[in-house]
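Work package 3, deliverable 3.1, input record:
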Amino acid sequence: MSTATQTPAASKLVTIEALTEFTMASLQRLGVSEADARTTADVLVTTDAWGVFTHGTKGLRGYLRRLKAGGLRAEARPEIATQGPAWAIVNGQSALAMVTSVLAMRTAIAKAKTCGIAYVGVRNSCHYGAAGYYASLAADAGLIGMSMANDVPSVAAPGSRGAITGSNPISYAIPAGKHRSILLDMSVATVAGGKVYAARTRGEAIPNTWLVGADGKPTTDPSGYPQIGALQPAAGHKGYGIALLIEALSGVLSGASVTWQVGNWLWDDGTKPTDHGAAFIALDVNTIMPAAEFTRRVEALVDEIHSAPRADGVDRLFVPGEMEWEKHARATREGIALPSDVVESLRDSATMAGLKLEDYL
Amino acid sequence: MSTATQTPAASKLVTIEALTEFTMASLQRLGVSEADARTTADVLVTTDAWGVFTHGTKGLRGYLRRLKAGGLRAEARPEIATQGPAWAIVNGQSALAMVTSVLAMRTAIAKAKTCGIAYVGVRNSCHYGAAGYYASLAADAGLIGMSMANDVPSVAAPGSRGAITGSNPISYAIPAGKHRSILLDMSVATVAGGKVYAARTRGEAIPNTWLVGADGKPTTDPSGYPQIGALQPAAGHKGYGIALLIEALSGVLSGASVTWQVGNWLWDDGTKPTDHGAAFIALDVNTIMPAAEFTRRVEALVDEIHSAPRADGVDRLFVPGEMEWEKHARATREGIALPSDVVESLRDSATMAGLKLEDYL
């Protein structure tokens, strides 16, 4: 969990409860049921509590816009279209992707408890926020969880002039006993597009590993992004290769749209479904190995990393997700320090929902 | 599949059949059954045919040495220790890892055909060669396959002074209809240790993204490697995060050794098992979606990539594995051009087995 963490310049301190209440109220004003609003708010607010502000309630205005336009349907019920002992395909019916994704991961968890492992593919979904939330659901239930999704292309392949795959997030979570779950949430690009865009806004050059320009070659010039250029895949052919696995499991095998057929949830026609795909995999630890033994083994691994020799000047070694869980604990105690761009976005959300932000935050 | 492909300086052209025959004969001379020798030879020679010479028959002398010393047991039969509908744990019993791994992937394939997906973990195994071979077995049978393994630590984590995880290979293969399977085989390190060692041998500096030195900081000096330094993880925290997922599925959940408990298959006491872990996952496409529909969809994705705009000076865009399958086709027609270091290693193998290399190649 680290592509999008950021230290806010100016921020507003809000409680998890207040932010949840505002998010739920906004969604309910657009016809979303209380239960679905709660599910969606928990995804978005948990993400903010992790400090991953690019994927939390900042997205709310985008989801509200689509709910208003009809591309997302407030009353839709995602359903299991086909299934077997250790697999299912969920048709999201253009419901909020958080609602569909939670159903899908819960289905994977239930099937994994019987079979050991399960795969659930999703089609007719939309932007689902932070991949890590769903993986974390599985870990909270004692399972190893994986979550991934496709998206409209923004990332180049080695040698391509433009984008070939989405930034295709992938996440896993591993229950870790006395520690919070080991939790990785990454995109297949070298950096988030937001970092390139921020450099453009500041008029700064970027490292030549972030972007390819109009000629498909690495560039230090972000001035045309995102109209010109594509993100570079992380570690070259490795990031590109992982992107295609995600595309296959999320898009191809689920029956969802693939690459350029996926709608852009922010910029494309809000009246049309985006038809994102996603995939969820759960492995039930306790079916395969006594949970206490697994816990002992994974705790030993984490402890070993924590006590390993550090490079000069390094205070701590972290396992994936550890920084985010510490932010989460602080947010639970002290509130979330929302960056100003998130607060501005929530003001837009309030306007769209006919609410006063000050009544909540 | 690209970490270790190389253009040989001086090479010897051999047929797949002759190299297979030599590999089988060497193994059989050390007590391995004809069937197990055939399995092992197919893994190693297929890898050479892909051009991945670091992981092919070059490893044979290492396996023979362990067979002689007793750390690998020629007569051992890997067995399914525990299992359920969509999972199993295989105890390799210190048999050749290729024999154990093929059994494990075949078990995953059979269970996935019933359940949709299956996981098979392996313990008491050893260095299994190229991860891609086993993923490819699944794709040849119409399934999506994944293969991964742990190893003795050689790769740093962000901020660590030394190695934290193995280079932990991971591979997937996706059946692709009229095309050969999409096939990725990667390690979690920025580059293979062999590339660092080769630079040391040539007395050259290396890019500062390959290695951390004795102080845990990036270095351009390979002169102490591998005694001093650790490989950098690919894409920093992303490669490190993937390494830990592989460690969890291959080592922790299977009951195998984890990180520093894994034996070094080349350098550690040959009389002792290395107790490597591995994990194999198969998804049966045809259980989840009609195979013809999946084929149409994946072919469209490959065709889209092939016809996408290319950067200036780039002739072709490749999907993962495409270069290796073209080498494989050429090797089948014309033979494999074995680099001189592989030929030298085969000479050692022949000596160990009491064979004359010239009788075969």
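DSSP finds eleven helices and 14 strands in chain A.
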